Amino acid sequence: MPEMKPSLEVNDNNLGNSFRFQRCGWPNDSDKWHFHPEYELHQIVRTSGKLFIGDNVLNFRPGSLFLIGPYTPHNFVSDARSGAVVPERDLILQFRKEWIEASANVLTELRLLRPAFDEAVFGVEYGGETQQAVYGLMNRIDSEEPLERLISFMRIIDHLKQCRRKTVLGTSRYFIDMRTASLRRFNKVVDYIREHIEEDVSMEEAADLVGMSYKMFSRWFIECTGIGFRRYVIKTRINKSCEYLFSTSRSIQEICYLVGFNNVSNYNRLFRQVIGVTPSEFRRKSQEAQEYEFPLEGFAAA
After folding, report:
1. pLDDT in tens, 158-180
2. Of 114, 178, 235, 266, whose CB neighbour count within 10 A is largest?
3. Structural domain count of the chain
4. How far is 125 from 165, CA to CA, in rounded Å?
5. Domain termination residue (choose one: 140, 168, 196)
6. Is residue 73 a part of any domain in this protein?
């Protein structure tokens, strides 16, 4: 399950290469609510489940392809049975914005690829033939020579730019802005929310925790997340309830109180407002998604 405290993931420079490629199994050390300064192109090879990204909760399945922007909190949670081990679940490319911008200044042609990155501030999901095309390139990139790797990378980004079946994930500035906030201070506040999720969460107490006045804290929190404190708490509770709906058989009424709501009708209303469906519809759709099998060659639902 994703923790509600987003932690900073520190990646090495992969021995000076322009980008970092990984094949990841599941579970792994990155299975937590986390963020990092790199862009991340993430393709699912095996299992279905839920992607928690910013203020969104999405289904993923074999073949699903996402570009996640810098400092955007995210976590991929597979629905595999308890204790299961998946040797290779993900193909991941990570690269820095600074490298893309510096390269575009030298190679004019690369400027044409910038729109693919600009729209990924909140994350983008790509569908259709792009999934298979990108998989073919990603799946061989770690066996290529350095120049071939770079060419494959540019081809991958071009596929993303040309994709017509894509969805920008979220409309709010929900990401960790390292320019306007102390990470340690922000994590203190998120820890406080997570630890008191079943109780009343007070903005006054959160402000005191980081040594700010109520008014200063309110402005600072919006700068960090793009939304107000109360709205953030509601979305945190809704996301936590999604985890319970997705992975347990607890009743909707029980989940409602577990995540700090006082009555079921208010919970249902806010859930629909944030997620777009009722809790019972969300649970049903989650169960249906687990039975889905990706139809294209190269992916497995196991």
Report:
1. 899 889 898 887 644 455 554 44
2. 235
3. 2
4. 8
5. 168
6. yes
pLDDT tens-place string over residues 73-117: 788 888 766 667 788 899 999 988 777 777 777 666 667 667 777
E strand segments, 45-119: 49-53, 56-60, 65-68, 74-78, 86-95
In this structure, how many other beta carbons lie within 10 angstroms of the beta carbon of residue 246? 20
For residues 67 and 17, membership in a common domain is answered with yes
The terminus-to-terminus CA distance of the chain in angstroms comes to 19
Q: What are phi and psi of 291, to 5 degrees?
A: -90, -5
Per-residue b or e along 70-94, where b marks 16 or more CB atoms closer than 10 Å to that residue's CB: bbbbbbbbbbbeeeeebeebbbbbb
The stretch 35-58 carries a mean pLDDT of 85
Q: Which of 135, 168, 201 is the last residue of a domain?
A: 168
**Cα-based angle 66, 100, 223 (whole degrees, multiple of 5):** 70
Using the Cα atoms of residue 248, residue 250, residue 252 and residue 257 in order, give the sign of their dihedral: negative
Mark whether 160 and 54 lie in a shared domain: yes
Among residues 131, 103, 146, the alpha carbon closest in space to that of 42 is found at 131
Distance CA 262, CA 291 (A): 34
SS3 category, 228: coil
Half-sphere exposure of 52 (CA within 13 A, CB side): 25
